[in-house]
Design brief:
342 residues; alpha+beta; Immunoglobulin-like; 2 domains; four-stranded antiparallel sheet; three-stranded antiparallel sheet; 8 helices; 60% helix
């Protein structure tokens, strides 16, 4: 049967109309999906913001608790030293400490040392506030003399532990202590190690943490001359600097006079005062950050309701992934709960 010419446009228009309807329907569905997605995204972003603030607040609260504990430790150490000082001031300044008094004071100093060396104290062996990238300092044994003037030329070779680094020193005869020190400093500078002399005329070696292995392991010294006999290698271990409390303990054990003990106590207290100022500055900074977060944490009741409803919905929906989501959110708010209960 032949199709009439008048019927063809009608069928074509019908097809076009059908296609347009499908396109319009797809467009409508797409727009609906976008709107729904936008509605779902807004609460989720609000939840992330709330939980992020809680997590940050928890971290700051934990850091503040550590700072407050360190501040309390420093004050306790200072008070303990002040108690010792008062005991000493009741004695004649030029009189030596008796054996009984020495024993009693040594016990008190030992307690202070244990308190200062605890990891939670935040102090290093020098009673200074620990820093993440602090320089590493070691000192040479007092029995090893590398800087005094000698009447003969000397050649000294130092193998710096297992680091593979080595230093060679050529010390000419009759060279002064200052010149010997300069020669040693130049040789060690090539290994990123700084050298100086302390008040006891002992060599101090300082380097950054990345090169510290060379100072933490035993050295082997060989050479020719008076300081090091030819062919006889000597093993040396660098030691940490004695802390003010260690120096005080040694002074008391030697039963030196009262003025010597008071001098060591004053040194330790000066260091603790400097630490206290530093710790209090950290406390003020953390307090300011916490206050800033609290000001920006004006979470509306609607946001909190959305968060509550979202969690409730996820708990009631039998989806394994929801367990991981809720657990993650709980972990993020754990610190905030601790802060609220503190």
């Amino acid at each position: 049967m032949l199709v009439q010419g008048s019927e063809k446009p009608t069928q074509i228009e019908s097809v076009k109309s059908s296609k347009a309807s499908v396109v319009e329907q797809k467009s409508s569905v797409s727009a609906s999906d976008v709107k729904q997605s936008a509605k779902n995204t807004a609460p989720e972003q609000g939840q992330v913001a709330v939980l992020s603030r809680w997590a940050k607040k928890g971290q700051l609260s934990q850091a503040m608790a550590q700072v407050e504990h360190r501040e309390m430790t420093i004050k306790q150490l200072y008070s303990g030293l002040e108690k010792l000082a008062q005991q000493l001031k009741s004695m004649p300044s030029s009189a030596p400490v008796s054996a009984l008094q020495s024993h009693s004071m040594t016990q008190q100093i030992t307690q202070l040392q244990q308190q200062a060396s605890a990891q939670s104290s935040g102090l290093n062996s020098q009673l200074k506030v620990q820093q993440p990238n602090a320089q590493v300092v070691r000192q040479l044994n007092s029995k090893v003399d590398l800087i005094s003037q000698r009447p003969h030329d000397e050649s000294i070779h130092l193998l710096l532990g297992r680091s593979g680094k080595a230093v060679h020193l050529q010390l000419p005869a009759n060279q002064s202590e200052a010149e010997n020190l300069n020669t040693i400093a130049e040789a060690f500078a090539k290994q990123q190690i700084n050298v100086e002399v302390n008040r006891d005329n002992r060599l101090l070696f300082t380097t950054s943490p990345e090169y510290s292995d060379a100072l933490k392991e035993n050295w082997v010294i060989t050479g020719q001359g008076v300081r090091v006999a030819a062919g006889n290698p000597i093993s040396l271990q660098l030691s940490e600097l004695a802390s003010p409390l260690d120096q005080l303990e040694e002074s008391v054990k030697k039963q030196q006079d009262v003025s010597a003990h008071l001098d060591f106590i004053n040194r330790a207290q000066r260091q603790l005062k400097a630490n206290l100022l530093q710790i209090q500055a950290q406390h003020r900074e953390l307090t300011a950050q916490l206050q800033q977060i609290e000001k920006s944490a004006d979470v509306s009741g609607e946001q909190m309701t959305q968060l509550s409803q979202s969690l409730k919905s996820k708990m009631l929906t039998p989806n394994v992934d929801n367990i991981a989501v809720i657990t993650a959110q709980a972990n993020m708010t754990r610190s905030m709960v601790k802060y609220a209960l503190a």
